[in-house]
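thread: overnight batch results

M.L. [08:02]
morning all. the overnight job finished for the chain we discussed friday. pasting input first so we're all looking at the same thing
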Amino acid sequence: MFFFFIGNTEVVRVLLEAGAKTHQTNRIGRTASQLAAFTGQKQCVDTINNYVTLDDLKYYITPQG
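M.L. [08:03]
and the structure it wrote out:
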């Protein structure tokens, strides 16, 4: 789900609606949302963040360890 590099939120939305995972990470442990933010693709970050599931959200707001 690393199509954010092209900056096309419509492509990102289509991928997410087709089931792309928002929490999937690359080899260095970064998500598409993190990398989109790093490269200044704010609209793509917003689009990706609108597809975060409640279960994923609970995981990230619950202290781990």
